[in-house]
Design goal:
Helix content is 1%, strand content 50%. By secondary structure, it is mainly beta. The strands form six sheets. Strands 1-2-3-4-7-10-13-16-19-24-27-30 form a twelve-stranded mixed β-sheet, with no helix packed on it.
Length: 450
């Protein structure tokens, strides 16, 4: 069956062209009255030229889309004070349009069932915003839920309100090749938005039978975008109570020119932001302007006077006399613990990240043999897999050094590489295989790095 075309309107009035293609009705929109208050199911509305609209649009029927052919020419300008698009539990697409909400909100979209975990909490719909320009807008959007939120090649600039691009509990969020900058009024450049540009909000609270549970993000992929906050704005904000199963933020350009008290990224990486629960499941890499989320730790102590107590032929964890200090760390923590039945204060390193790692380990220490004579000391690296309290020597990590006399201070350097998973713990052990003479680790440096 071929396309069916119908022209509505006669004479000098502006006509509305309709066609039906593959069971989807296509309506060419030339004036505001061509857009109904509630979009019709399985209908694509094609914007022709610049159209100013004062009324809001509800999208509650499935299979709708509003598209243009050229975002520089096909424009939908909303001058009302409410929310232009309100989308509820349906698939919807915006494509190739210039969009403005000069006094209100551009879009609010929700697809989530907080009282039941069925169908991933009812997140079954797809929201697509593709190749659009959002300009001269007060507030941008709030998008909650959905199976997929797919943003591609969206230019978002000249924003002046308090709401930027807010996302909450999306099952899959894909944001590629977008540009966010110049969040100020266009005519004078003196009124500035106070919003976070990209805001990944805290988990949604479950209700009813799901009360006590929270609904977070499943997958987030943000890449290839330009993010340029100014003044007090935040480029990307991950809420403290936000969670994600798999997050990737890569190959973006974060620009700090013009920032006063704002931030490119929060929680701030230099203040431990990548080590928080909300960010541990993100891989953040190869971005201009913000550091990578690689895992590392440097632990040191100097001037220790507390011997490591040894029994012949039995490895024991080294002791540090309460002096061990973390100099720098990300996704690792150092703690001082007692291992086994012995009384000791041993520095251990715990991996807090969630993805498996391959790490390099470098240890430099100086020690004194206690007691007379000459003995061989064996230094080894042990791992407690999963933090269950069982330390096992890592094969090939042993460094053997002969030491003699109380006054001899000797140096040991060790390098090693191994895999780590969440909650794995590392410790350094020492063994005197031929006698029970103790050993004193005076100075110590320990670097573990992804």
């Amino acid at each position: 069956m071929g396309d069916i075309y119908e022209i509505i309107g006669t004479g000098a009035s502006k006509g509305t062209e309709k066609s039906i293609v593959n069971s989807t009705e296509i309506i060419e929109v030339g004036q505001a009255s061509d857009l109904p208050a509630t979009l019709v199911a399985d209908t694509t509305y094609i914007i022709r030229g610049e159209i100013t609209i004062t009324t809001t649009i509800a999208i509650t029927n499935d299979g709708c889309a509003i598209i243009g052919q050229d975002r520089n020419r096909d424009k939908l300008i909303y001058t009302g004070a409410g929310t232009l698009f309100t989308i509820t539990d349906v698939n919807f697409t915006l494509r190739n349009l210039h969009l403005s909400a000069t006094n209100g909100n551009l879009l609010s979209a929700t697809n989530i069932t907080t009282g039941s975990s069925a169908d991933n909490y009812g997140r079954t719909k797809v929201l697509v915003i593709d190749s659009c320009e959002i300009r001269n807008t007060t507030n941008v959007w709030y998008i909650q839920g959905f199976e997929l939120v797919d943003l591609n090649n969206v230019l978002i600039w000249y924003i002046v309100g308090t709401t930027g691009c807010q996302f909450q509990s999306n099952r899959h969020l894909q944001m590629n090749s977008c540009e966010l900058f110049n969040w100020q009024d266009e005519p004078t450049g003196t009124t500035f938005s106070t919003a976070s540009m990209i805001e990944l909000q805290q988990d949604t609270a479950g209700t009813g039978g799901e009360a006590g549970n929270t609904i977070g993000f499943a997958v987030i992929n943000i890449g290839g975008s330009i993010i340029h906050p100014i003044r007090t704005q935040i480029g990307m904000d991950i809420a403290t109570l936000s969670t994600v199963a798999f997050g990737t933020i890569s190959s973006n350009t974060f620009i700090d020119v013009g920032i006063t008290s704002g931030e490119l990224f929060t929680p701030v990486p230099a203040s431990g932001g990548y080590s928080l629960t909300s960010t541990l499941n993100y891989d953040i890499a190869v971005n201009q302007g913000i550091p990578n989320s690689i895992s590392y730790i440097l632990v040191t102590f100097t001037g220790n006077t507390n011997d490591t107590d040894l029994s012949s032929g039995t490895p024991a964890p080294i002791e540090e006399g309460g002096l061990a200090t973390t100099q720098n760390s990300q996704r690792f923590t150092m703690s001082v613990v007692t291992i086994g039945a012995s009384v000791n204060d041993t520095p251990v390193i715990t991996y807090n990240g969630t993805k498996p790692l391959y790490v390099s380990i470098a240890i430099s220490l100086s020690f004194d043999k206690q007691g007379g004579g000459t003995d061989g000391y064996i230094f080894t690296i042990h791992k407690d897999t999963g933090g269950v309290g069982s330390y096992v020597e890592l094969a090939g990590s042993a460094m053997i050094l002969d030491a003699g006399g109380d006054a001899d201070e000797l140096g040991v350097s060790m390098t090693y590489a191994t895999t780590l998973e969440e909650n794995d713990i590392l410790a350094v052990f020492c063994e005197n295989p031929s006698s029970g003479d103790d050993m004193l680790v005076k100075n110590f440096q320990w670097l573990v790095k992804e």
